[in-house]
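Severity: low
Component: inverse-folding endpoint
Summary: output formatting inconsistent between runs
Steps to reproduce: submit the following structure tokens with default settings.
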């Protein structure tokens, strides 16, 4: 599946998050931020566009209702950050840590998570379209009541992920690893799995396989 890449100009100026911290409508665009420490802060209804962010820390920061468009993140730490009700489009997360990040009630389109950690992250009640999870950890990640369209899990660890009330029709899990998943039988219809995973699902459903 091809997704749109972030549209970011080559020539960017350097900025800092603290420059807009107290603005009524905080906005940053056409810039780059490196090695910023923006932990335990709050930036509500912010808007970031056409930016690169590298080696930044956003642990426990409140970004509720943030709008992210045409953004490239590399080696950034969003552990336990709040990005609920966010809008994320044409974004790429490379080697990022999103442990326990809150992305509930959000909209994601043309987003790629690559070599990243999303264990215990929360996507509940969100809409994801054209999103790729590549070689990433999604252990115990919550996808409760999500709308998934054109989603790919490529060589990920999704052990313990929750897909309750979420249809997996058309979703290919065949290259990903898991010991158990939380998913109801009706929502498995149309899900693509490997032969070994099919046996795992049979076991998860409580059936006993006899030779």
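Observed output (run 2 of 3):
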């Amino acid at each position: 599946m091809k997704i749109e890449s972030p549209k970011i100009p080559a020539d960017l100026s350097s900025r800092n998050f603290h420059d807009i911290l107290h603005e009524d409508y905080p906005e940053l665009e056409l810039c780059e931020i490196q090695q910023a420490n923006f932990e335990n802060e709050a930036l509500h209804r912010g808007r970031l566009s056409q930016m690169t962010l590298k080696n930044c820390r956003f642990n426990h920061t409140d970004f509720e209702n943030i709008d992210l468009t045409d953004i490239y993140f590399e080696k950034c730490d969003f552990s336990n950050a709040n990005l609920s009700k966010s809008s994320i489009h044409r974004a790429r997360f490379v080697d990022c840590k999103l442990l326990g990040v809150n992305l509930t009630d959000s909209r994601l389109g043309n987003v790629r998570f690559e070599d990243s950690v999303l264990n215990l992250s929360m996507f509940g009640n969100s809409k994801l379209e054209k999103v790729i999870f590549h070689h990433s950890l999604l252990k115990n990640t919550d996808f409760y009541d999500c709308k998934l369209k054109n989603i790919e899990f490529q060589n990920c660890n999704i052990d313990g992920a929750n897909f309750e009330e979420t249809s997996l029709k058309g979703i290919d899990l065949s290259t990903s690893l898991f010991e158990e998943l939380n998913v109801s039988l009706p929502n498995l219809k149309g899900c693509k799995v490997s032969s070994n995973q099919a046996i795992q699902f049979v076991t998860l459903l409580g059936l006993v396989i006899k030779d």
